[in-house]
Predict the 3D structure of the following.
Amino acid sequence: MPDLSRLLNPKSLAVIGGGAWGEAVLHQAKKFGYQGSLYAVHPVKKEIAGIRAYPSVIDLPEVPDAAFIGINREATIGAVERMRKLDAGGAVCFASGYAEASGEDISGTDAQARLLKAAGDMPILGPNCYGFINALDGVAVWPDQHGCKRLESGVAVLTQSSNISINMTMQTRGLPIGYMITAGNQAQTTQAHIALALLDDPRVTAIGLHIEGFGDLTHWEALAAKAHAKSVPLVALKVGKSTHAQAATISHTASLAGGDTAAQAFLDRLGILRSPDLPSFLETLKLLHVTGPLASNQISSISCSGGEASLVADMAEHHDLSFPKLTSEQKQSLFSALGPKVALANPLDYHTYIWRDEDAMTAAWSAMAAPHIALTLVVLDYPRGDICDPSDWACATNAALRMRKATGKPVAVVATLPELMPEAIATQLMDGDVIPFAGLAEALNAVEAASSPRNTPSAEPVLKRPLAENTETLSEFDAKAALAHHGLSVPNAIQTNHSATGLDALTFPVVVKAEGMAHKSDVGGVILDCNSRAEVRDAMDSMTNATSFHVEEMCDAGAELLVGVTQDPAHGYLLTIGAGGILTELLNDTQSVLIPSTPEDIKQALTRLRMYPLLTGYRGAAPCDIDAITNAILAIQSYVIAQDGAVAEVEVNPLICGPDSAVAADALIRRTP
């Protein structure tokens, strides 16, 4: 991994290029109070932005720790090579037109290869990259305006998009951004590489990652392991949809596990939190900066309006959050502070009887921050300072700060509308370790993310192989035989033609299936409950387009699951578990994990299914054998792992689950011969 220490906290900075962008870097460095040595490099100009210019980097008084290279694509390659030969600390490559533009310019890929060769082991950010801001050390290698301020600690934000990074620096939400780093097209140094380096800075409280694609998964696995060891939370804003190869699939699973499912499974596997949108991303980072991950999803809410209390409850309905009933101790404390005219509940509408009585407000709010509550939300929209007098709200701000200090419990003040959380108030609350949430919807998204259970990152790498090509579909008989070899229970069966040879080896009743069809039940290719040889022949005769058949003993009735594996090109083999049988797509009740997964991972996935109560004895029915189900799923996984990339997809649907068994009633395998 490249050593980024000199690049990200340089004692000397050289700007190569005298255009407007290079000049802007020098202006921004001085404006931000950079204390290191500043140099300009230009073959003709004697001075740029008041800084002496040298004709070449080899003429500089010292080898720079960092350089901003603001010249064209070809010239950048030469400049990077000269920097590397001087043993410089690293460079930001501003120019575009490399591999990210190869669709329009086929020479871009070659240019990127030459750039990487020129850089060698010297770290570079980009190309097509704006650079970075290190607000903790007063470093701005940045060719534009920004809204960062000097800090002693804060979060780090990493993104490929320069424009989004600028916008985030301009936020007025009170989020302390310690590092803002753009990675460009990540030719050499990836977001994961950068985040790994930032984990060595104890001033970084959380890391936010705006991710367009993961690239090499092993880098992310290493990042997750190190972040977990250092207890630094990671938050992702993952955009885009994976190019899941659904067009080539024939199983039900593909319709359920496409799009973004594998990306989510990868983040879950690594214990990385995820935000649904940019505002929620910033609010989640803010929460984590103040409190770190929350102990649980049990929260309290306080407001002086019944409308707000109802709004919080309604909006939280679609989140994995809980409002525990008040304890007797809480009720007693609240009654002492509020009197008999207030209905005591959580969420709490405390009316306005105690407004401006800071002591009473503190006492009542503190009662809501009970030991079992992970976070208390104080709903409070501040008036506009330009046309109103906000001094009336000082009592509420002070009560929230006093409540935090008195209880030692996490507290947040939530403005239902983002624009009604003034930046000055947000800063005041942050200074007192109170989270200032700008927007109720964003706050609930942040609380849900920060309270969600985080997996310990798996020690085993994801099974990712090149996409299987030139595949064939095995017969059901062969598919079941292959899976049975790895421990999957399957019914006794024969392959036969119209003669029904071998039928004596089976016990009636049996099921007759036409071979060579996908989704046989949809086209009359399955006849159940045949109780004699004559009924078997009749069943075969009814399937006029079939010449060979799969005949097997009927399974006992039970709960039906789907277990499928598809190959995701970006994230590896995806194992999907869901409601099975003929209602698979209709119910769309699935959970997905990546291979390899542990028995515990699989059992957790089962518990998240909406149909899980059917597996545990719904309305007095006998519970299914969860261990048998888990072992069946592990057997399917074992087969996929053993094939080492030859498998394109596997589906068992249904896996019929009973009190002491889990049997594959149907199976499909598509693989390279």
Observations:
- Residues 559-671 form a domain with the D-amino Acid Aminotransferase; Chain A, domain 1 fold (CATH 3.30.470.20).
- The chain has four domains: 4-274, 293-451, 492-553, 559-671.
- The longest strand covers residues 647-657.
- The first helix runs from residue 5 to 8.
